[in-house]
Backbone:
């Protein structure tokens, strides 16, 4: 098939014979779901490779936190390609064993068996298999170098030989899709067979667009309110910033449902014909917003906002550090793992090495205990990369200088104070923006990641790219005369 692509005199390639189909499919997708431009281009690239028969057998995997609409995009893609989507939920009660660590994980052979059974009852030429939650495969039974299609063929052959099925299923033309929250949890061999498409977190403007374009029409029809209800942009901003902070829009959908339910009741009980939902009336429908222990308007000694990531995407974590009279102990509380504690050890050694330049007593490690506490310990989190934040909070606590409340940071550090690059920059910056942060500090080695941040966010937030801890300390610690 590759020979069908001719090279024009100008050096450009002639259009693919399937370009019209792909263009129509993408246009159909745009009418039912919101696609970030990077996601749209990645889907188009996958479809081109698939139609040119160059990479058949690969699985298209949408990777994103909960609430990003991974399954919705997969269903819309199948509909645009006129394919019947068959969902095989990895970790469902039909093929899973209980996982004592929380959640449910699946045996790979059971998944392959379910795929064979589903295709046996459908036309493999017009079917698409969605492996929902492919990161929940049981690592205890799956070889890290496992080949899913090899397992699928083995299960099919085993079923035929044992007469569990009477016909052989041809999977060569079946489109395989998958969803995952954490690609790192997928067995390495299976991960190599994925064409993964990370779905970046939605900006506030994108969330409002999704709500007004796709959510409101559904809810207006469901509750029979039509144009009798109006929700202002400021109300949407209030919901996003004060009631739900997430990468996707699942929480926003729940809030809108609550508003529509109460609005319907108000319309019946109070006889209001036109219902206006504004920022100052959100409490009437949603109650009080989420409490904020450390507002961004407050500058605190030893308190730093850390950019991290959890199961909902980017998030803001609050780190507290206390320097207490003691014998040099380093105390950890909150949800801190081994990597976090090692980062704290590195930060402590860096401060000892630079004590004089930082204005810290040379013997602080013998006269003080350092207590490091990560707030909201009950919430799972990963990808914190808190080295720079720990160092900043420690210096603040030792020299008694507050840290700017409207600043947040991410990055690991070396023993000599070099700021090291990290991942998930876009998601972290969007979380900072939603939390009201004005200044974000990221490693200068993440320069390319900063280019993916929406312009609407960059207009309201300042990104500082730093290469040394001293740069962050100089811009975030406040002298007594500046308070």
Residues:
């Amino acid at each position: 098939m590759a020979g069908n692509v001719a090279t024009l005199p100008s050096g450009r390639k002639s259009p693919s014979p399937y370009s019209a189909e792909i263009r129509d499919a993408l246009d159909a997708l745009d009418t039912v779901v919101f696609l970030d431009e990077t996601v749209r281009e990645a889907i188009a690239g996958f479809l081109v490779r698939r139609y040119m028969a160059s990479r058949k057998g690969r699985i298209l995997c949408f990777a994103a936190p909960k609430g990003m609409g991974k399954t919705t995009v997969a269903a819309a893609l199948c509909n645009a390609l006129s394919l019947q989507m068959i969902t095989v939920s990895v970790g469902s009660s039909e093929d899973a064993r209980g996982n004592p660590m929380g959640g449910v994980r699946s045996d790979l052979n059971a998944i392959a068996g379910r795929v064979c059974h589903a295709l046996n009852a459908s036309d493999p030429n017009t079917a698409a298999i969605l492996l929902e939650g492919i990161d929940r495969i049981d690592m205890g039974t799956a070889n890290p170098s496992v080949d899913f299609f090899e397992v699928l063929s083995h299960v099919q052959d085993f079923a035929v030989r044992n007469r569990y099925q009477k016909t052989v299923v041809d999977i060569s033309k079946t489109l395989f899709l998958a969803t995952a929250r954490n690609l790192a949890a997928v067995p390495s061999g299976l991960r190599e067979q994925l064409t993964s498409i990370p779905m970046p977190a939605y900006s506030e403007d994108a969330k409002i667009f999704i709500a007004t374009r796709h959510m409101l029409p559904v809810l207006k029809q469901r509750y029979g309110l039509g144009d009798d209800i109006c929700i202002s942009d400021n109300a949407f901003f209030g919901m996003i910033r004060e009631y739900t902070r997430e990468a996707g829009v699942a929480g926003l959908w729940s809030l809108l449902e609550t508003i529509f339910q109460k609005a319907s009741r108000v319309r019946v009980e109070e006889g209001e014909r036109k219902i206006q939902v504004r920022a100052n009336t959100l409490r009437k429908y949603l109650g009080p917003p989420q409490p904020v222990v450390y507002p961004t308007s407050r500058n605190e000694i030893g308190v730093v906002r850390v950019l991290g990531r959890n199961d909902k995407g980017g998030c803001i974590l609050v780190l507290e550090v206390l320097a207490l009279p003691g014998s040099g102990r380093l105390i950890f509380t909150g949800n801190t793992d081994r990597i976090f504690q090692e980062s704290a050890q590195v930060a402590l050694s860096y401060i000892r090495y630079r004590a004089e330049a930082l204005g810290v007593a040379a013997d602080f490690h013998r006269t003080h205990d350092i207590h490091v506490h990560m707030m909201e310990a009950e919430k799972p989190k990963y990808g914190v990369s808190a080295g720079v934040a720990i160092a900043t909070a420690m210096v603040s606590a030792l020299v008694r200088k507050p840290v700017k409340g409207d600043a947040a940071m991410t990055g690991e550090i070396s023993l000599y104070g070099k700021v090291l690059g990290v991942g998930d920059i876009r998601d972290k910056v969007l979380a900072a923006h939603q939390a009201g942060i004005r200044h974000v500090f990221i490693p200068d080695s993440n320069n390319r990641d900063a280019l993916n941040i929406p312009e609407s966010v960059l207009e309201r937030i300042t990104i500082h790219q730093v290469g040394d801890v001293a740069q962050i300390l100089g811009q975030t610690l406040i002298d007594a005369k500046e308070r």
Observations:
- The chain is about 40% helix and 20% strand.
- The radius of gyration is 26 Å.
- Residues 352 and 362 are 7 Å apart (CA to CA).
- The mean pLDDT is 83.
